[in-house]
């Protein structure tokens, strides 16, 4: 009898715990949700986060508060949420590089991005463009490659820093096209663009910041490194179209949660973000940033990160690239 009572008591405890958990998930969010942006205030990721958070607040019925935890290419924000409760109240907005590229760049990380955090929703993508000054002696990509091969001095290209997406894309392109070029790293894409405009470097793969200069005729866009043409420059071909298969990578930003967050909460976050991305005012704001809202599932964004990891990891290892 005592054994039976003990089993019944244990079963009752388990039932009450499950009921409590289900109730908590159903009530989520019952307080403000915080989004920690892994990059400085005022930058593209920060503006993206604040645009999405405002609309998420309307959908969820609770404030979605944005704060900045910049540093280590998103690692500091990722590490912070990895140490918070897995309850959906602490999110970080980072590029997928925190799980696809950073583990190869940083010898030590304060968390395991493949085990400790998981993406909940994509917040947008940035497409990279091969750009030069208008007086560069080439009218199309084939001419660009021919000029690069014929040059007695290797071309120079700028990037947002060692191991950044523009750096890795340029390395993959020059290998695919079989020409030499010297990397000039900068502390961000903006100073790299300024030196390109000044003629201090020959080309770069720019993550959208160059678009106003392209439209104003100060820079020329030859191709987009993406699986599809950009809605922002629809007449610009993709590198895949031009005979360079496999060069179709975008820069993706996503909201991450701590691993172990209940799936029901992850689903609510995903639904709220995707609803925000469909809002006309957000779409207009994104166009100003050179970004595109692309609603997708958490599984879709995870698959993108895994593909990036498989492509960029070998390049980083071969070139022995380490974070500055």
Which key features would you list for this structure?
globular, D-Maltodextrin-Binding Protein, domain 2, 5-stranded mixed beta sheet, alpha/beta, 324 residues, 2 domains
Characterization of the model:
This protein has helices at residues 2-27, 44-60, 75-82, 97-100, 102-105, 141-150, 165-177, 189-197, 211-215, 263-277, 280-289, 298-319, and strands spanning 33-37, 64-68, 90-95, 117-126, 128-132, 155-159, 181-185, 203-206, 220-225, 251-258. The protein has two domains: 31-125 and 251-319, D-Maltodextrin-Binding Protein, domain 2 (3-Layer(aba) Sandwich), CATH 3.40.190.150; 128-225, 3-Layer(aba) Sandwich (D-Maltodextrin-Binding Protein, domain 2). The chain is built from twelve helices and ten strands. The model is unreliable at 13-25 (pLDDT under 50). The chain has a five-stranded mixed β-sheet, with helices on both faces. Strands 7-6-8-5-9 form a five-stranded mixed β-sheet. Helices cover 44% and strands 18% of the residues. It is globular and about 65 Å long. Helix 2 packs across helix 10 and helix 2 packs antiparallel against helix 11 (280-289). Strand 1 (33-37), helix 2 (44-60) and strand 2 (64-68) form a beta-alpha-beta unit. The chain starts with a helix and ends in a 5-residue tail after the last helix. With 324 residues, the chain is of the alpha/beta class.
């Amino acid at each position: 009898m005592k054994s039976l009572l003990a089993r019944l008591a244990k079963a009752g405890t388990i039932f009450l715990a499950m009921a409590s958990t289900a109730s908590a998930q159903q009530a989520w969010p019952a307080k403000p949700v915080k989004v920690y942006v892994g990059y400085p205030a005022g930058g593209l990721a920060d503006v993206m986060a604040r645009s999405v958070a405002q609309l998420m607040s309307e959908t969820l019925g609770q404030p979605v508060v944005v704060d900045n935890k910049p540093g280590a290419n998103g690692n500091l924000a990722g590490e912070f949420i990895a140490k918070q409760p897995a309850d959906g109240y602490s999110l970080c907005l980072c590029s997928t590089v925190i799980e696809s590229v950073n583990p190869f760049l940083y010898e030590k990380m304060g968390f395991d991005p493949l085990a400790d955090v998981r993406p909940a929703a994509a917040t947008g993508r940035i497409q990279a463009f091969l750009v030069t000054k208008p007086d560069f002696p080439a009218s199309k990509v084939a001419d660009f490659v021919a000029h690069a091969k014929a040059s007695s001095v290797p071309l120079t290209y700028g990037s947002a820093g060692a191991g950044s997406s523009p750096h890795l894309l340029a390395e993959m392109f020059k290998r695919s096209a079989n020409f030499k070029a010297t990397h000039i790293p900068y502390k961000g894409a903006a100073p790299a663009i300024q030196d390109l405009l000044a003629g201090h470097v020959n080309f770069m793969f720019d993550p959208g910041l160059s678009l106003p200069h392209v439209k104003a005729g100060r820079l020329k866009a030859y191709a987009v490194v993406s699986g599809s043409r950009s809605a922002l420059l629809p007449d610009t071909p993709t590198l895949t179209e031009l005979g360079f298969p496999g060069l179709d990578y975008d820069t993706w930003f996503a909201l991450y949660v701590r691993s172990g967050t209940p799936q029901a909460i992850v689903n609510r976050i995903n639904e709220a973000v995707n609803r925000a991305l469909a809002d006309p005012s957000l779409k207009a704001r994104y166009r100003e940033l050179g970004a595109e809202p692309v609603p997708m599932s958490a599984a879709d964004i995870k698959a993108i990160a895994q593909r990036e990891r498989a492509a960029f990891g070998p390049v980083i290892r071969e070139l022995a690239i380490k974070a500055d």
